[in-house]
């Protein structure tokens, strides 16, 4: 029995199975008539309109993506907010979190325009079970939410055997 040959074949078989794994999701916030926030704590944003969830890694009840396999992932998020009346303060800050650590953020804090948007795209290495989510910072809010403008997406670029 050639153990090295069997190990090599097993490795090839694992790569073949993992290589076929498809992981991707896109979710957006549903239309709301009022604001999301402010809260007295940082809060994961509930992107509850699911348009894609291959691999079932995204949980809309929690607003959290859990990696079904280790690998390199691409994540993007966009934030849109509109003031209800002139003179109000645009005041949001959101951050992309990986396993409880900030990896990217975007914010707006002004009275100079009535609406604004921003986006981020990042590549992240995740272990199986690693979690990624977008959270709204304590005391901040997103208002005038329009369907399709507040979006959180992610996809597996390639798996790793870590």
Question: What labels describe this entry?
Answer:
mainly beta, 1 helix, 11 strands
Describe the structure.
By secondary structure, this protein is mainly beta. It has 1 helix and 11 strands, in the order H-E-E-E-E-E-E-E-E-E-E-E. It comes from Nibea albiflora. This is Complement C1q-like protein 4.
What structural class do you assign from the helix and strand content?
mainly beta
Question: What separation lies between the terminal Cα atoms?
Answer: 28 Å
Q: Low-confidence segments, ≥5 residues, pLDDT <50?
A: none
- Profile the largest sheet: 6 strands, antiparallel
Question: What fold name stands as the CATH topology?
Answer: Jelly Rolls
* Overall number of domains: 1
**Which CATH class is shown?**
Mainly Beta
What is the string of SSEs from the N terminus onward? HEEEEEEEEEEE
Give a brief outline of the structure:
Helix content is 10%, strand content 47%. It has 162 residues and is mostly beta strands.
Topology:
Blueprint: H1 3-19, E1 24-28, E2 43-44, E3 49-54, E4 58-59, E5 64-66, E6 71-82, E7 90-98, E8 101-110, E9 115-126, E10 131-136, E11 151-159
Antiparallel strand pairs: 1-3, 1-11, 2-10, 4-5, 5-10, 6-9, 6-11, 7-8, 7-10
Organism: Nibea albiflora
Protein name: Complement C1q-like protein 4
